[in-house]
Amino acid sequence: MNDVLIVGGGPAGNQAALSLSRQGYSVVVVDHRVRLGDKLCTGIVGRECAERYRVSAELVRLRARAATIVSPTGRAVVIERSEDQAYVIDRVRFVSSIAGAAMAAGADYRLGGRVAALAIDDSGVHATVVSDGRTSIVRARAVIIATGFGSALPRSVGLEAAGTPTFAAQTTIKCTDIESVQVYAQWSLPQGFFGWVVPTLPGEALAGVIGRRRPKSALNSMLEGLKDQGVQFEISGPVRSWGVPLKPAARSYGERVLLVGDVAGQVKPTTGGGIYYAMRCADIAGEVLGAALASGDLTSDALRPYEERWQLLLGRELKLGYFARRIYEQLGVRELDSLLALTATNGLLKDGVKFDWHSDIVSRALGHRLFEGILSPFTRMGRRVGVGADD
Ligand SMILES: Cc1cc2nc3c(=O)[nH]c(=O)nc-3n(C[C@H](O)[C@H](O)[C@H](O)COP(=O)(O)OP(=O)(O)OC[C@H]3O[C@@H](n4cnc5c(N)ncnc54)[C@H](O)[C@@H]3O)c2cc1C
Hints:
- This protein is an alpha+beta fold and about 400 residues long.
- It contains 11 helices and 19 strands.
- The structure holds flavin-adenine dinucleotide.
- Flavin-adenine dinucleotide (FAD) binds near residues 43, 168 and 276.
């Protein structure tokens, strides 16, 4: 019997596989993709992520020191730093490189197979894997479900995947007019949406949007808006859409099982970015599960520290981030425009916005005298969700 079955070879699953195989456990990773990492994503990670996980320079397509935020009325606010803040990476190669490291440490990868069913009993985990129309059973002492957004597998073992989805749509454009990261805050988009154009390769960029519903039609509006502004581009890829959870799963552990990554809702609710959080939580999962395997105690009590530890790391971020998103979704054009103008001029951004950690700037903005007029209607909503002056 294997020690651990990992379902899903995205950033979460591969990083957990790396951690556990380096500890000497026998790990099997099953993913229905053959090309690991080829999942709809823009591939931006912050500097902290790139440094911690040693993203090699050859995987970096663009180094971003600045981002331009375009307000609902078209006012451009440039946030610029003296050092790189984020990197646009070749996501497929990055995710595959983590899998490669896990394989080198002994992990067994079974690609092109879908885990169709999971069952857990006192003897272990039993997974039904369907590959090329053939069915096989994989057995393990424990399972990590790292299946990303919208997976039904958690339910089969008595857990619920993360909820409260948003939906993103993205396509590739040929464009030489845009050379740095652009973020469109509701500009030419329905209320609650934001969009981006992120240069990737010379003359090429990813254009995308995220919001609660109908992202493909919102992406069309944004692209129309760009055309109206005289930006020259040509759509050069399919328009694809996929979901992003905004709230964490009610519980991310059970007997012999952990949920890691998007399936657990370990995603920044402000932007929908989840690569870094998925990998951080995978490290925690690897440590907690490694200790449980060593002690032979795989009860949910023994695995609870996983949730306690990742909540300690991310809980406040997720709570304040979700609150900030709810405010964003409710602000009208005028309020959002003033908020961005004030933010650009009042020094709030002086100390820097950390790419992966937004709770500080959210709490500073909430307590800031200048924003009182715009944000006071949300104070009561904040109290209801437990965001108070101390946050
Ligand atoms: C349009 C868009 C843009 C984004 N841009 C960014 C960005 O720039 N930066 C960022 O940090 N985040 C971004 N994200 C979010 C990011 O892609 C996810 O947070 C991240 O991929 C989560 O990693 P994961 O390992 O949890 O899941 P995933 O990367 O989704 O991996 C899950 C894996 O599980 C496999 N799988 C699922 N079910 C099964 C099954 N039953 N059997 C076998 N295999 C299965 C899938 O094939 C997949 O390979 C974006 C999301 C979207 C939608």
